[in-house]
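Troubleshooting entry. The earlier prediction with NDP gave an output that would not parse, so I re-checked the input for stray whitespace and re-submitted. Clean input:
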Amino acid sequence: MKDSKDTLEALRAEIERRNPAQPEFHQAVREVLETLAPVFAARPEYADPAVALVERLTEPERQIVFRVPWQDDRGRVHVNRGFRVEFNSALGPYKGGLRFHPSVDIGVVKFLGFEQIFKNALTGLGIGGGKGGSDFDPRGRSDAEVMRFCQSFMTELHRHIGEHTDVPAGDIGVGGREIGYLFGQYRRITNRWEAGVLTGKGAGWGGSAIRPQATGYGSVLFAAEMLKVRGESLDGLSAVVSGSGNVALYTIEKLQQLGANPLTCSDSHGYVVDDKGIDLALLKQVKEVERGRVSEYAQRRGTSARYVQGGRVWDVPADVAFPSATQNELDGQDARTLIASGVKAVSEGANMPTTPQAVRLLQQAGVAFGPGKAANAGGVAVSALEMSQNAARIAWSAERVEEELARIMGAIHAVAYETAERYGAPGDYVTGANIAGFERVADAMLAQGVI
Ligand code: NDP
């Protein structure tokens, strides 16, 4: 075991040297490699230096960086940078979202693409891993500006994607509106009705029922599975949720359907705590219809809600926590606060929202911790179901998709749980999810030769 640990440590150091100034990518790689020592010890073929499996797995198959010029409503030209990292296609076409946020750079896209490989493998479906986006900030931009940006972005991206090649979807800053503009431009340039080239499309033009809900619903279903193992349920529990975007809204919705009481939501300016529980219809009106801030929710809600400028949503005591905004939003201090308030479970709706120190503290305290690779895989799983519906030119009912989502989340929980047990780390879903995802991709890569 010591030998495989040393090998992995040397590989990690070399990956960091070759990819300087990409801290999020380093963090994602370190987190995976730290859990692989037992599988390297048990399956020496993975560690054979002659096949360089880890070196290949951590090097994207292709990285595309491009200029995105666009004109604002006053006629001024702006230049953003576009990215698509096609990380691994051993299990199927590259699959993963597009993120539009000022913090996006190549390191962020690589971290997200790397995580996506294992997440997609865990779903059991035939999808590889990729990710993309731009440093464009859609907040405060008019619909016409967002449309012009999306058209310019797709004018380059269309060369690289396709239903059998690479299938993007949404992520931060990319929702139904943006997918619509991107799809329109793809169709115009290629003169093809290729519905399977993007997922997250609208109902009525190739979108799947339940896709907007899938990530948030899945994260709650994963938490329910973790609690079930401990003989508990979400019914009657209070919850803290961060974020107020796609994932957060549908996390709140599913929590309410299962009898829990979500008390909070947030954005990058502050958070809201609502003693009566979040009024989801009002929050959707503010966020989805008016594209406003959570402070406006508090103003309109009445005395039960207050808005805290800045501050940490994790300061609100609750039974379960759902980080659903962005990476590294829950740190060691936040974990201590949650543990002190008696939190039972944390389920990551966002990608890598919990820092490594916070994960360690939560696990040491016996909190059930669902890592994003497993807990937020419901979104990409339903995206894969959207691809299946597109290929067959049919649309499934919402009931059928939701049943499939519940089945897939149950299966992901089971494989992460059982793999952790098999490798001597009972209850450690981080280890279980990393190893189970890794084994599936690694076996496919070994079978397919040196690619
Ligand atoms: P949205 O753009 O719909 O919402 C993002 C939310 O997070 C907003 O409330 C936003 O606030 C907040 N946020 C974003 N960046 C920051 C920041 N730097 N600091 C504080 N708050 C921030 O995105 P999604 O809901 O789609 O995505 C949320 C997370 O879930 C991401 O980590 C994403 O990768 C992950 N995810 C999403 C999936 C999907 O299907 N959409 C699938 C799997 C994972 P503000 O408006 O102020 O920026």
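This one parsed fine. The chain has a mean pLDDT of 97.
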